[in-house]
Amino acid sequence: MAKCSDPAIGDILSSWRYDISGSSPAVRGDLEAHLVACRQCRTRQRFHRTIDVTLIGVATLSILAFLLAIAVIHHLEPLRTWAVALHMRQINFAVTLQELAVAGLLLSVLAWLLVALVTPAPTYLSELAVAQAREIRNRAPRKAA
Description:
Blueprint: H1 7-15, H2 25-37, H3 39-75, H4 78-85, H5 90-118, H6 121-139
């Protein structure tokens, strides 16, 4: 593994989890220049952003899965037959499953909010979207005047 070209700046970046979005413009310029020059810090920053985006993605998928589970539990007939087969009262069985799904949904929303507030993932994703939009706009054919 390559060593950091400036260990002092590398230590600052690592303590901030390689997030430079909240720094002042003057400091941010120095940090961006270091990230361009230092392969190790750039790799670590990319690794941290990958983890952040993956956490947001997993939490989003979890929210969608629990919403689907709530809808299925609420609307599907097989739950009644399962309750009969298990010799349970039908209403209690469906309500218990629905309560568990709602609890899972709330925990997933809480996890999503924590990741969105604690990590720079939303800022990173918006910067990525702007960069891709700029690239697409630059590739588009120009209209003749």
